[in-house]
Specification:
The protein is an alpha+beta fold. 39% of the residues lie in helices and 27% in strands. It has helices at residues 2-35, 39-52, 139-146, 160-165, 173-179, 182-190, 216-231; strands at residues 55-60, 82-90, 93-102, 114-133, 153-155, 167-170, 199-211. Strands 1, 2, 3, 4, 5, 6 and 7 form a seven-stranded antiparallel sheet that branches. The radius of gyration is 22 Å and the shape is globular.
């Protein structure tokens, strides 16, 4: 009986080690796929930019300052560089997209590069800052820390279904409730993209972002989503006329 248990324990240990190694290899490949970009993918990006008549700057020092105000950029910054800074027009709106890379301590290890890609659509007027994203455990703590720099506070709309699915961080309650009317709130609740695409209203910009490199196949998807969000904003609101 003891020998049987020893064999079972040994087999269990082997299976556990094999599963751990398999998970490690899978995670490493996933990170490499997300954070690496082949020469062919870079060529596809440049070809898309050229075909659309957009502009592309490989390295743009200082251009990141205007996009500060929260993840994935700092709340405030000076002379922040951007990589693969693209500017153009999409669905009749001015747009930009770029990579922001940092070397902060993160889950991938100390001093490893964190690649983030940001997509931006310009609005006709300036609005108060508001973030809409999936809930996270430390949102209220982070919001209190960010409020020192104008980061806002966690707000609830009073709709249990929406408040459970999304976290809203803002300073201007009137603007927040005016924008998140029935049309936009329903759109966010019903559109599958909203669960993976955080939103930040800031100044005359609407932004979304994700971890990883800027690739051609992401651009239309992200910009279409931002434009669809703007199409659901209330036209009657004074601040959006």
């Amino acid at each position: 009986m003891n020998e049987t248990w020893e064999v079972l324990i040994f087999i269990g240990m082997i299976l556990f080690i094999a599963a751990f190694l398999g998970l490690f290899i899978w995670a490493s490949r996933r990170v490499n796929k997300r954070d690496n970009r082949s020469p062919q993918q870079m060529e596809e990006l440049l070809q898309l930019v050229e075909s659309r008549g957009w502009s592309h700057i490989a390295w743009a020092p200082g251009q990141g300052d205007r996009y500060c105000g929260g993840d994935p950029l700092p709340m405030k910054g000076v002379n922040i560089p951007l990589r693969d800074y693209i500017v153009g027009e999409f669905r009749g709106r001015a747009i930009s997209c770029f990579e922001h890379n940092s070397r902060d301590m993160n889950a991938d290890g100390p001093d490893s590069v964190r690649y983030s890609t940001v997509f931006v659509v310009t609005m006709p007027t300036s609005v108060p800052r508001m973030v809409i994203k999936m809930p996270q455990a430390l949102d209220k703590v982070n919001a209190r820390a960010a409020s020192v720099f104008g980061g806002g506070k966690v707000m609830e709309l009073g709709d249990p279904a929406f408040d459970e699915e999304f976290r809203v961080i803002a300073d201007d309650e009137e603007f927040t409730r005016g924008v998140l009317n029935a049309s936009l709130a329903h759109f966010l609740m019903s559109d599958a993209r909203a669960k993976d695409e955080p939103l930040r209203f800031q100044g005359n910009m609407l932004l979304t972002w994700h971890r990883g490199r800027l690739r051609a196949e992401h651009i239309d998807q992200k910009l279409n989503y931002l434009c669809d969000v703007l199409d659901h904003l209330p036209n009657q609101a004074q601040y959006l006329v």
